[in-house]
Amino acid sequence: MKLNSSILRVSLVIVAISSASCDRQKKLQEERQRIDTEAERVLSEIQTLDQRILSFGSVSASAAITLERQTAAMEQKAAYLQKEIDTMKAKLKSLESAAATFGPKVDAYKAKYLR
C-alpha cells in the first residue's frame, strides 16, 4: 500500500504540475493574443496616420502649384500694366512737349485775335 500511496502522490504531483503548466500556457496564449491584437491596432493607426500625412503632402503640393500659377499670372499682368504705364508716360511726355511747343503760338494767337 505504501507503493500505491507513493505512486498516488507522484501522480497527484504530476497532475498538479501539468495543471499549473496548462494554466500558465493558457495565460501565455491569452497574453500573446492580447499583444497581437494591440499590435494590429497600432499598425492600423500608423497606416491611417501615414495616409493623412500623404494627403496633406499632396494638398500642399497642389496648393503650391496653384500658388505658382497665380504668381506667374500676376507677374504677367504686372508686366502688362507696367508696359501700359510706360506707354502712357511716353504719350504724356509727347503731349507736354507739344503743349510747350504750341503754348507760345496759342498765346500769340490769343493776344492777336482775342482782344
Instruction: Find the count of extended strands (DSSP E, 2+ residues).
Output: 0
State the share of residues found in helices, binned by percent.
Answer: over 70%
Q: Strand fraction band?
A: under 5%
Distance between the termini: 161 Å
Structural class: mainly alpha
Radius of gyration: 48 Å
Global shape: rod-shaped
Along the chain, the helix and strand elements come as H
- Average predicted local confidence, pLDDT: 80
Largest sheet: none
| Parts with pLDDT < 50 across at least 5 consecutive residues | none
What is the count of helical runs? 1
What is the compact description of this entry?
This protein is mostly helical. It is 97% helix and 0% strand.
Please provide a written account of the structure.
This protein is an all-alpha fold and 115 residues long. It is 97% helix and 0% strand. The chain has 1 helix and no strands. The protein has one helix at residues 2-113. The longest helix has 112 residues, at 2-113. It is rod-shaped. The termini are far apart. The model has no long low-confidence stretch (mean pLDDT 80).
Top keywords for this entry?
115 residues, 97% helix, 1 helix, mainly alpha
Give the helices and strands, then pairings.
Elements: H1 2-113
